[in-house]
Design brief:
Radius of gyration: 18 Å
CATH topology: TorD-like
CATH class: Mainly Alpha
CATH architecture: Orthogonal Bundle
Low-confidence stretches: 223-234
Helix content: 55-70%
Amino acid sequence: MSRDPDPRRTRLLAEADLLLLLAGWLDRPPGDAEPAAGDLAALAAAAGVDGAADALASIAASRSTTPPAEWLAEHARLFEGGVDCPPNETAYVRRDKGRILADIAGFYRAFGFEPAADSGEKADHIVAELQFAALLLVMAARASAAGRADDEEVTSRALGSFWADHLGAWVDLFCERLGRVARLPCLRDLGGAVLLAWGTIAPRHGLGPADNRPVADEPELEGTPYECDRCPAG
């Protein structure tokens, strides 16, 4: 077996691919092109996430036996309509909603990221935030391969800031709630898979607990007033 000439780049790209896979499973109904168990095991190994191979294979197998119409109905129940599991940061983080969305949009603009135009989702949607984190990992991998240490440092700092200010403040609450309320195994188990992935990736990049995490125990439902952490009462 030949030695990988750039193991750091390979690991960063695998971490990104793992996050994109999980984001895609949150966003897309089952199809004919689900990844094979061997490919999932190779991805988990390349990303260095112990235990992920079995978790990913189980979700893929469950997706392969779930009718798309059943998945779409459950997806709508969880994330649309009544929203049993809100997929947006601003449902969990009790700060000024407009300020949160503006700050996320600033991150996206700075790195040329645009959520899918046809998704109709807000910038703070879990899928968009996972995709953006994956983009930063890809950019770090490319900078590492090209020997651009300054560029790699910029993307690493951005990932740390985005985690501390946004994704890290609510991803665990979303995943835990998804595991409680989802009825289909292929969606219910996704919460645990995302937590497993980030539980390995975050410490590896020095991403600790979110700073001054102002979150609710349960998500704020759409239409509920948001509290501004610096606004006076009344």
